[in-house]
Amino acid sequence: MTTFYIVRHGETLWNAEGRIQGHTDVGLIERGREQARATARRLAGNAFGVAYSSDMSRTIETAQIILGERDIPLNSVPELREYNKGVFEGLTPDEYREQYPHLYESSLVNDPDFAPPGGETIRQCQSRLSQFFSCLREQHPNDEVLIVGHGGSLRSGIVALLGLPLEANWKFVMHNCAVSMVRTYPDNSVMHLYNDTSHLKDVR
């Protein structure tokens, strides 16, 4: 049985401003670091065998804060990156509605094959995360594994782990430094926790 503890990165300036990040490398703000420190306290008793983050600075720093001084290997990999949002990156929804009105209308439809120019579809992202989690299950069959990533792509990973239809991507939300937990078995995966932010109640 593999147990995945899945954490979204702490808050960034672009999160606070409502800007789309995607593959743009935006670092944590101090509130994001405090969220990560609270998550570290929450997960201090977990015996992680290994940890993975995306190769973006916001996820690497979040994972490093959570792991602290523990001797747990951290692997930073591009497979865990957020959806590539192409021309939308760096813009707020109001800004991309103004600059790309036709694309904006298309983005409001739950179409798994829609991508802004230069970007990635939900179908492509879910395929990427599905393959990655399948590899982790094979490599770490009896471990607790910490995963630190991004809200959109982690939702796709969880949908893939649970064997849910692609359309389930639009049924979940994930907050900064929320903790989710999925246990995998030979013929099934079970969600035990999702988007838990109870440890962040004192973060201002």
Secondary structure layout plus pairing:
Layout: E1 2-8, H1 13-17, H2 30-42, E2 48-54, H3 57-67, E3 74-77, H4 93-99, H5 101-107, H6 122-139, E4 144-149, H7 151-161, E5 179-185, E6 188-196
Parallel strand pairs: 1-4, 2-3, 2-4
Antiparallel strand pairs: 1-5, 5-6
Average of the residue pLDDT scores: 96
Q: In angstroms, what separates the terminal alpha carbons?
A: 37 Å
Order of the strands making up the biggest sheet: 3-2-4-1-5-6
User: How many H/I helices?
Assistant: 7
Instruction: State Rg.
Output: 16 Å
Report the sheet-strand fraction: 15-25%
Indicate the overall shape. globular
Order of helices and strands: EHHEHEHHHEHEE
Structural class estimated from helices and strands: alpha/beta
Largest sheet: 6 strands, mixed
What's the helical proportion of residues?
Answer: 25-40%
Low-confidence spans = none
Q: Tell me the number of strands.
A: 6
Quick summary:
The protein contains seven helices and six strands; from the N terminus they run E-H-H-E-H-E-H-H-H-E-H-E-E. The chain has helices at 13-17, 30-42, 57-67, 93-99, 101-107, 122-139, 151-161, and strands at 2-8, 48-54, 74-77, 144-149, 179-185, 188-196.
Task: Describe this protein's structure.
There is one protein chain. The protein is built from seven helices and six strands. Strand 2 (48-54), helix 3 and strand 3 (74-77) form a beta-alpha-beta unit. Helix 6 crosses helix 7 (151-161). With 204 residues, it is an alpha/beta fold. The longest helix has 18 residues, at 122-139.
Key terms:
204 residues; 35% helix; 7 helices; 20% strand; alpha/beta; 6-stranded mixed beta sheet; 6 strands
